[in-house]
Automatic annotation (TrEMBL):
Keyword ATP-binding recorded: yes
Source organism of this protein record: Oxalicibacterium faecigallinarum
ABC transporter domain boundaries: 11-227
Highest taxon, organism lineage: Bacteria
Pfam family, one: ABC_tran
Taxon lineage: Bacteria, Pseudomonadati, Pseudomonadota, Betaproteobacteria, Burkholderiales
Keywords, comma-separated and alphabetical: Antibiotic resistance, ATP-binding, Cell membrane, Membrane, Nucleotide-binding, Transmembrane, Transmembrane helix, Transport
Protein name: ABC transporter ATP-binding protein
Length: 227
């Protein structure tokens, strides 16, 4: 791991602003958000639907570009990089878990988990992916395609995919939003276990107070501002 990822905060949001054009003119989704996350921390982002949580997460991960302000990951300004630079950084350092799982439907569970490793040219992609799927309790589902897996199983595959390349930073956007309460709880438990084992930094969007309470720190977004 480069020195910079150890000696700088994992994430710095600096006056992060997002404006979009809409039918009535300009819509300000985020109004100058500032916060810092230290390496190894767990942060919950909570707020009402439409408050700007997913937009914020997308900016932190460099999936979207800000209108003003910036994001530093491990001390590096990700918006001073070009798209390719950000894509490379995502591939090397970031993991994602989404509400809708976002598995590739034409790949089986094993292939979905192998993909991030193969993109990095890892020669041990298959054995690492198999071990990771075993870790999330899916050793007997390697060849299943997503449509033959339950929601909870699909999210376990997504967790395996997110963690298999051991990214220092994990982003999760309402990862239990599509699951029933009991399944959601088991997925969250697993996500925190993996996060602890790997000593990664976790940023979790949720509207569930009991899930937010599992994080070391919570920030609340209301109408695009830190509350
Ligand atoms: N590209 C876009 N164009 C116009 N409006 C958008 C765009 N992206 C998000 N919004 C609006 O910005 C607000 C915040 O969206 P989002 O970040 O998805 O909120 P949350 O995740 O908190 O529910 C919502 O009102 C949404 O409709
Ligand atoms: Mg959202």
């Amino acid at each position: 791991m480069p020195e910079s990822f150890l000696s700088f905060p994992a994430i710095e949001a600096i006056s992060l602003t997002k404006r979009v054009a809409d039918a009535t003119g300009e819509l300000i989704i985020l109004h100058g958000i500032d916060f810092t996350v230290q390496a190894g921390d767990t942060l919950a982002i909570v707020g009402a639907s439409g408050s700007g949580k997913s937009t914020l997460l997308g900016l932190l991960a460099g999936l979207d570009t800000p209108s003003a302000g910036t994001v530093r990951l491990g001390g590096t300004d990700i918006f001073e990089m070009d798209e390719d630079g950000r894509a490379g950084l995502r591939k090397e350092r970031l993991g994602f878990v989404f509400q809708s799982f976002q598995l590739l439907g034409h790949l089986n569970a094993l292939e979905n988990v192998m993909l991030p490793l193969e993109l990095r040219g890892d020669a041990e992609a298959r054995s690492k992916a198999e071990a990771m799927l075993a870790r999330v309790g899916l050793a007997s589902r390697l060849k299943h395609y997503p449509k033959y897996l339950s929601g909870g199983e699909q999210q376990r595959v997504a967790l395996a995919r997110a963690f298999v390349s051991e990214p220092p930073l994990l982003f999760a956007d309402e990862p239990t939003g599509s699951l029933d309460a009991a399944t959601g709880e088991s997925v969250i438990k697993l996500m925190f276990e993996l996060n602890q084992e790997r000593n990664s930094t976790l940023v979790l969007v949720t509207h569930d107070k009991s899930i937010a309470a599992l994080c070391k720190r919570t920030i609340t977004i209301a109408a695009g501002r830190l509350a």
